Amino acid sequence: MIQQLIWVLSIVLIAIAAYLLSYIQFRRMIAQQTKQMIALMKAEDIDNMKIGDIYSQADSAFSDLERAALYLRKKYLRLRRQSQEERTGYETVFSGLKEGIVTVDQNLRIISFNESFMSFFNWAPIKEQSSYFLHDVIRDPQVISTFKKSFEKNEILKNEVDVFQLFVTPLPSRNENELWCLGVFYNLSEIRKTEKIRIDFVANASHEMRTPLTVIKGYSELLKEKFSGRPDEMALLEPILQSTDQMSDLMDELLNLSKVEMGRSLVKTRLSTNAVTEDVLREVENLLQLREKKVEVDFQVAEFAAAEEAVRQILRNLLINAIKYSGDASEIKVTWLKTPTHVQMRVKDNGPGIPKEHQDRIFERFYRVDKGRTRDQGGFGLGLALVKHHMLNHGGTVKLISESGAGSEFICEFPV
Length: 416
Ligand code: ADP
Fold this sequence. Notes:
Beta-Lactamase; Helix Hairpins; 4 domains; five-stranded mixed beta sheet; elongated; binds adenosine-5'-diphosphate
C-alpha cells in the first residue's frame, strides 16, 4: 500500500517537475521570441531583412507574426522617410523664398517664419526667449492692424506698408478650433526702382523730343505760308503738319502721365463740384455740339478736398471718352454723390459699352479696344491710365461697370 502510494507520489512529482520544466522552457522561448520581435519592430536597417530571418520554421505560429511585423515595420519606415523628405523639401522652399513669411496665432504670437522675414525686419530670435509676438518684430501699426482685421473678418487682406506689399490669409491651425494667419511680405523696392527708371526715361525722352518737334513744326508752318495757293505743295505738306501735331500731342500726354505717375505729393484744396464740372463742360462744348450729345449733371455733394487740376483732367478724359465712344447714343450723365467713406464721381453713357474681355486691361497705357477705330478718333490710349494714376495719388480707385451693348459707367471714388 505504502509502496503504491510512493509510486503514485513519484509519478505526480515527476509530472509536476516535467510540467514546470516545460513551462520554464516555454517562458524562456516566449521571452526570447518577444525580444526578437521587439528588436524587429525597432530595427532601422530593415530593407535587407526577409521573412524567416528570425523564425526559421515557416509553419511556426510566430512566423505569421513575424511576417505581419516585418510588413508593418517596412511600411512605417517608408512613410517616415517620405514624410521626412516632404518636410525637408518644404523647409528648403520655405527658407529659400524671397518673400518674407510669418505665421501667427490669434494673440499675434509668432508660430513660424522664414529667413527673408528675419532679414526684412532685421530680427533674429534669441535662444533664451521662447515666444515672440508680431509687435516685438514689427512696430508699424498698419501691419499689426492688417493682421488683427484679417482675424476679425476671417478674410484675406492686402495692404501696402512702407516698401512692402502685405497679404494676410487666415488659416485653420493644427488645433481646429483656433485660427492662424499667414502673412506674406513682398519687397517692392526693386520693382519701384525699375518703375522709377521707366517713368524717368519716358519723361526725359518726351522732353527731349519736344525740341526737334517744335523745330519741324515751326518750319512746316513757314512752308505752309510760303506755299499757300499752291495745292500740289500743300498736299505734300498737310500730312507733315498733321503728324507733327499728333506727335506733339502724344509727347504732351506722355509727359503729363509721367508727372502724375511720379506721384508727387498732392496739394488738396476744397473744391466745388459744380464749378469744376461747369468748367470742364465748357472745355468740351464744341465736341458735344459736333457729336450732338447732351450731358445731365446730378450734384448730391457740393464740395470736397482734392487736387483740383487732377479732378479736372479726370472728368475731362472720362467725358471726352463718353462723347467719342458712345456711338449714336446721345445721353451722358455725370453724378456726384457721397458714401460714408468716399465722394464718388460717376460718368455714364449708354453707348456700345466695353466688352468684358477688355475691361481688365482698359486702364493700361496705350490699350485701346478697337485700335483702328480709336486711332481715327485721335486717341493714344493714355487717357484712362492718367485717370487711374490720378485716383491712386488720391488714395482712391476707379472702377468700370459696363456690358457690351449696354453703355459704360466709370466710378471714381475719392476717400474723404
Ligand atoms: P483713348 O485716348 O484711346 O481714348 P483711353 O485710355 O481714354 O484712350 O481709353 C482706352 C480705350 O477704352 C479707348 O480707346 C476705347 O476703346 C475704350 N473706351 C474708353 N471709354 C469708353 C467708353 N465710354 N465707351 C466705350 N469705350 C471706351
